[in-house]
Specification:
Layout lengths: L8 H6 L14 E5 L2 H4 L12 H6 L17 H15 L3 E5 L2 H4 L9 H16 L3 E7 L5 H5 L7 H17 L5 E6 L1 H7 L13 H25 L5 E6 L4 E3 L4 H22 L6 H6 L6 H4 L4 H5 L5 E5 L4 E4 L31 E3 L15 H14 L3 E6 L16 H19 L4 E7 L18 E4 L4 E4 L1 H12 L4
Parallel strand pairs: 1-2, 1-11, 2-3, 3-4, 4-5, 5-7, 6-8, 7-10, 10-11
Antiparallel strand pairs: 8-9, 12-13
Helix pairs in contact: 4-6, 8-10, 9-10, 10-11, 15-16
Bound molecules: beta-D-fucopyranose (FCB).
Length: 487
């Protein structure tokens, strides 16, 4: 994806957002998304061993309020109830992630059948309810043993990942039609090993870049394995949080800042993924940090560039950047990928770039609401990559209040979702082949470094009792699905 400026045709198309009667194509997947560590709990059950997130969340000071995913929303024991909730909403698809340490505890050796049984039962229950499962192999929970051996900065981890992919594919390949390798590897590499606000909490820019290459390689190796083991009808995807980068002004300096962030935020993934290799400007920007010639081995780029069937976009807010300025605003929360603050930059080679808020209309995460960024992203991805797309995450945290009658009225979340679904419709109307929308998230859950303090669910969870209560946004989304679009 290239950077865009607000005067593009895409922006003009987005201006129709909110038009009444917007209908989505037949077969459009109406989904919701979750991730294993954020919902499952049962952290030490049935052979599961710690992941980097267990270690990180149990380290004092790393997660708000000392929260951990030990219990989370107990989905491991309550998945049947949760699937019934999905069916009541009318979801046609559900995106979840497999916990690597539940399936292959040390990241080596055979699979644990009890771990796989959980996912077999989950998938079978989804299928019984007519909900199509989408399995993500990696949503950030590396087995701690693999981190102890070096983590994503070492090459071996990519090979471990492909072996784990094989275990998952053999067990679930007959019943999961759509697979995604990685979720937001930008966060794994640059928040995990750069700014350190995510597990494993390391802060070395060279390690962050090495992690990025090995995540790319792990993706490619896993695609090869999945193609070998899955039925020919299975589809393979990857989900990226491609940053919709806009320069603050049209000055050469601000456009240069945007170029740098686009390089290390986006093209570091899409370059090799789509056969173009790592972009020359990225290699130049980061040449003093890492030795790319040593890092990239012969054959790596061919592995990473294996064809995929779908590209997933996770979108929450645009990324507005400038060159250093005297009147620099308070750092945009998006500076750290929106997931916490750190003295260490998650942007190797672009450390001095300044981040700005797109506007003052923010969610409880402090993330500005600008749905034009979603349509612009989808149209740009369609233009640049030409393959089918999915919005694999989009949603908003708000400070929900339980009313006296026990209900949760969340009109702000409905507004956010409405604007963004309209933006998806705009992208489709402009020609982008968007096959589905996965709302983040089905349930309130463990929001990484923010613990349970941020609620993204359309279903409220009382963390004391684990009681689930659909919010008004859940009823609104059910109605959108029933109508096949925005009314
Ligand atoms: C994304 C993550 C997801 C959730 C949302 C709010 O970056 O993939 O797990 O934390 O942000």
């Amino acid at each position: 994806m290239t950077t865009t400026d607000p005067t593009t045709a895409a922006h003009a198309a987005a201006a129709t957002a909110g038009a009444p009667g917007v209908v989505f194509p037949p077969g459009f997947a109406w989904g919701a998304a979750t991730a294993a560590y954020q919902i499952e709990g049962a952290a030490a059950e049935d052979g599961r061993t710690p992941s980097i997130w267990d270690t990180f969340s149990h380290t004092p000071g790393k997660v708000a309020n000392g929260d951990t995913g030990d219990i989370a929303v107990d989905h491991y024991h309550r998945f049947r109830e949760d699937v019934r909730l999905m069916a009541d909403l009318g979801l046609t698809s559900y995106r979840f992630s497999l916990s690597w340490p539940r399936i292959q505890p040390t990241g080596r050796g055979p699979a644990v059948e009890r771990g796989l049984d959980f996912y077999r039962a989950l998938v079978d229950t989804l299928l019984e309810h007519g909900i199509s499962p989408v399995a993500t192999l990696y949503h950030w929970d590396l087995p701690q043993d693999l981190e102890d051996a070096g983590g994503w900065p070492i090459r071996e981890t990519a090979h471990r990942f492909a072996e784990y992919a094989a275990l998952a594919a053999r067990a679930l390949g007959d019943r999961v039609p759509l697979w995604s390798t990685l979720n937001e590897p930008w966060c794994s590499a640059f928040l995990g090993y750069g700014s350190g606000v995510h597990a494993p909490g390391r802060t070395d820019p060279a390690d962050a870049l090495k992690a990025a290459h090995h995540l790319n390689l792990g993706h490619g190796l896993a695609v090869g394995t999945l193609r070998e083991l899955l039925p020919a009808s299975a589809q393979i995807a990857v989900s990226h949080n491609l940053h919709l980068v806009r320069p603050l002004t049209d000055s050469a300096e601000d456009r240069e800042a945007a170029r740098r962030i686009d390089a290390v935020g986006n093209r570091i993934w899409t370059g090799p993924l789509f056969g173009g290799g790592y972009p020359a400007d990225l290699l130049a920007d980061t040449a003093a940090i890492v030795d790319w010639d040593e890092l990239i081995r012969p054959g790596d780029l061919a592995e990473i560039g294996r064809p995929i069937d779908l590209l997933g976009l996770n979108y929450y807010t645009p990324t507005i950047v400038s060159a250093p300025r005297k009147d620099a605003e308070t750092p945009d929360p998006a500076h750290n990928g929106g997931h916490g603050e750190s003295a260490h930059s998650p942007w190797p080679g672009a450390e001095d770039v300044v981040f700005h808020l797109a506007n003052e209309d923010v969610t409880a995460m402090g993330w500005p609401i600008d749905a034009t960024g979603l349509s612009e992203s989808l149209i740009g991805m369609h233009r640049d990559f030409g393959l089918p797309l999915m919005v694999t995450e989009n949603g908003a945290a708000y400070e929900d209040v339980v009313g006296p009658d026990g209900g949760i009225d969340d009109p702000e979340r409905i507004r956010y979702l409405h604007l963004h679904l309209a933006a998806v419709a705009d992208a489709i109307a402009a020609g982008a082949d968007v096959r589905g929308y996965y709302l983040w998230s089905l349930l309130d859950n463990f929001e990484w470094a923010y613990g349970y303090s941020k609620r993204f669910g359309i279903v409220h969870v009382d963390y004391g009792t684990q009681r689930r209560t659909p919010k008004s946004s859940a009823r609104w989304y059910a109605e959108v699905i029933r109508r096949g679009g925005l009314g």
